[in-house]
Amino acid sequence: MRKLNIQVMLLIVIMVLVSACSRRGSDDTVAKHIQDKVAADPETKDSQVTVSAKEGKVTVTGRASTPVAQHKIKEIATEEPGVVDVVDQTTVDQGASFSQEAAPKPEPIVVPAGTVLTIKTGQLLSSKSSQSGQSFSASLVKPVSVDGRLALAAGSTVSGTVVTAKTKGKIKGEGQLDLALTSISVGEHTYEIHTNVMSSTIKGKGKRTSVATGGGAAGGALIGGIAGGGKGAAIGAGVGAAAGFIGGTFTGNKQIELPAESALSFTLAEPLTLPPS
User: Fold this and answer.
1) Helices then strands (H, E): number in the chain?
2) Cβ atoms within 10 A of the Cβ of 245, count?
3) If I label 18, which of 8, 51, 112, 195 is the partner at 20 to 30 A Cα–Cα?
4) In sequence order, which ranges of the chain are alpha helices (DSSP H)?
5) Contact between residue 2 and residue 26 where contact means Cβ atoms under 8 Å apart
């Protein structure tokens, strides 16, 4: 009987030891799983923490990179299977937190109304061959900056529309070509814009005028290059303190033509708001 009692006691001790080892192994596995998940999560990977577990009770110590990361670490530990309690002894990295709070959010870039956009046309536009409502392409010639920040880079793609295209009659009537810009592309995004309407007319014996309408712009006058014709001929249209230029010429029957790569200046009638660069 005594021998049997000794054997029972030994069996109990062995079972306790096996249970303890099994519990210890399970705790180590839980701690490792939590540690691995913290290191892999985008919100917590920059935190420096240590995870320990004992009988299902998890303790986390060290520094969390942000308050959000601190909350996320505790959430990861709580959701781990086998965890019955989580003791959060982490602290937030005050240097990183202060840096994030102190850094001002970048403000949008607002290109104000009245800004002049100088563009170069991508195709021929004519009072005879163009149609009202027709779109045309162009590119920005001069970059535009606001408060020292680049808003619109030179070469940006611009789109416009032919507001009016009217052929001059042989006996009476005037030729007319009115243009306006409608959009500009910045990076991968295209933004709607509203500009003055650039109007050029011919009447009488080839008398030609150019007027920028909308946005309070004034009329312009012929400044040279028309008689010889060809690319680069110009008409000025006063737009506040800026000058608008239309490169163009007359055709033989007194029509208005703007060859490809003609330079024109338009004025924004409304502000253009762009996201921070």
Assistant:
1) 3, 21
2) 21
3) 51
4) 2-40, 67-79, 94-102
5) no
Query: In 3D, which of 117, 120, 116, 118 has the Cα closest to residue 232?
Result: 120
Checking DSSP bridges between strand 207-213 and strand 197-203, what pairing results, if any?
A: antiparallel
Q: What is the pTM of this model?
A: 0.51
List beta partners, residue 232: none
Question: Could you read off the pLDDT of 195-254 as tens digits, one per residue?
Answer: 999 988 876 554 555 544 433 333 322 222 222 233 333 333 333 223 333 334 444 456
> Which residue, chain included where needed, has tokens 């009659």?
169
Q: How far apart are CA 228 and CA 217, in angstroms?
A: 28
Domains (range + CATH), the chain: 2-102 (3.30.300), 109-274 (2.40.128.260)
| Residues recorded for the chain | 277
The string of pLDDT tens digits covering residues 178-195 is 999 999 999 889 999 999
